From TrEMBL:
CDD domains attached to this UniProt entry: HAD_like
Species per Swiss-Prot/TrEMBL record: Desulfobacca acetoxidans (strain ATCC 700848 / DSM 11109 / ASRB2)
Signal peptide start-end: none
Protein name, entry field: HAD-superfamily hydrolase, subfamily IA, variant 3
Coiled coil: none
Keywords: Hydrolase
InterPro entries cross-referenced by the UniProt entry: HAD-like_hydrolase_sf (IPR050155), HAD-like_sf (IPR036412), HAD-SF_hydro_IA (IPR006439), HAD_sf (IPR023214)
Source species, domain of life: Bacteria
Keyword tRNA-binding attributed: no
GO cellular component: cytosol
Amino acid sequence: MHVFNWQEVDWVLLDMDGTLLDKHFDDYFWETLVPREYACRQGLELAAARQEVFARYQRQEGTLNWTDIDFWSRELDLDIPALKEGIRHLIEVHPDSEPFLRYVRRLHKRVILVTNAHYKTLELKMNQVGLLGCFDAVLSSFDLGAPKEDRRFWQRLEAKLQFEPGRTMLVDDNREVLQAARNYGVRFVFFKARSSSQAAPETSRRFPVIHYFTELMPPLESAE
């Protein structure tokens, strides 16, 4: 259990993929399904297709293209939205996410979904899991013109929401995003270590680590 004063937090910013939602969907999609479909499309051996596709991924990491499924449709000559739709049954919420969302709502915090996901992916996932009503606002990096790893994202987010970084919490499974938020002045940052139900939890020396949201949930009477 992480001990801090919830009365010092007004804003709770939450990442989507890996933090609220099980990252197994994305890992399977980008690491298995897309290379397999690309191999078929290009007439390549799977190993060669994986090497080429992963090299293309790496070149776009940390940019808006990284999560732009229209970009990847053009880049790989595949219908990425249709492929995602075909496995939408794999989109799942982490079991601890909804209890935490209810918890922070009972504390009367402003709850904001902040994601690098493309709006088509965001719509698909929110329609599948039904969490959209849990947030006061939903902001994508595509709305703000910069990924969360970029300081400009945080500048534009603050301008849009008028949140106070010193009274804000962020939970994310991306260390670079957490570092960007910390550099901007977000006071409470937590690394979500268990991003996928099918992979071992990760760790971090730079940030406080949680495996489950329950680690941020003391009894309500002591948090209020």
